[in-house]
C-alpha cells in the first residue's frame, strides 16, 4: 500500500470512529420500555421535543458524558420519547411526567431518579451514574 492510500484510509477510519462511538438512542414506541425492563435492562428515558432548547442542552450534556465514559452506552438502554407524539401517552401518565425535558431512570419496577428541566452536567452525570450503578450491580 502506498503512502497516499494509507493516509486516505486512515483519515476515513478516524472520521468513522466518533460516529460509531455514539449509538443513537432508541426511539420510543408503545411496549418498548416494558420489553427492556422485563429483560432486566436499566432504562434511561429522555422526554424531549425537537423545538425545546432545554432538551437540546440536555442532549449535548448526555452526549458529552457518553463520549467521556463509553460504559454508559454499553450498560444503559437510552430511549428518546418524542413529547409531541407521546406527551399524552400511557407511559407519560403512568410515570407522572410533568413536561418535556424530563429525564428518568428505571430498573425493574423502580424509578431510580429523575431530572426535570435541568441542564447541569453534574446533575445529569449523577443520574447517569445511578443508572450505570444499577446496570452493573
Automatic annotation (TrEMBL):
Matching Pfam families: Thioredoxin
Superkingdom of origin organism: Bacteria
Entry keyword set: Signal
Annotated ranges, domain Thioredoxin: 6-137
Signal sequence, start to end: 1-23
Record PROSITE patterns: THIOREDOXIN_2
SUPFAM superfamilies, A to Z: Thioredoxin-like (SSF52833)
CDD domains per the UniProt record, alphabetical: TRX_family
Gene3D superfamilies assigned: Glutaredoxin
Name of this chain's protein: Thioredoxin
Provenance organism: Primorskyibacter sedentarius
Amino acid at each position: 500500500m502506498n503512502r497516499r492510500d494509507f493516509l486516505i484510509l486512515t483519515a476515513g477510519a478516524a472520521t468513522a470512529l466518533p460516529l460509531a462511538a455514539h449509538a443513537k438512542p432508541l426511539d420510543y414506541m408503545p411496549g418498548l420500555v416494558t420489553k427492556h425492563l422485563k429483560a432486566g435492562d436499566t432504562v434511561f428515558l429522555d422526554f424531549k421535543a425537537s423545538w425545546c432548547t432545554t432538551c437540546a442542552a440536555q442532549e449535548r450534556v448526555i452526549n458529552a458524558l457518553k463520549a467521556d465514559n463509553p460504559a454508559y452506552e454499553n450498560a444503559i438502554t437510552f430511549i428518546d420519547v418524542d413529547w409531541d407524539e407521546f406527551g399524552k401517552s400511557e407511559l407519560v401518565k403512568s410515570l407522572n411526567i410533568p413536561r418535556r425535558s424530563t429525564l428518568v431512570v428505571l430498573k425493574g419496577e423502580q424509578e431510580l431518579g429523575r431530572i426535570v428541566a435541568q441542564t447541569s452536567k453534574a446533575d445529569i452525570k449523577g443520574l447517569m451514574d445511578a443508572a450505570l450503578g444499577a446496570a452493573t450491580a
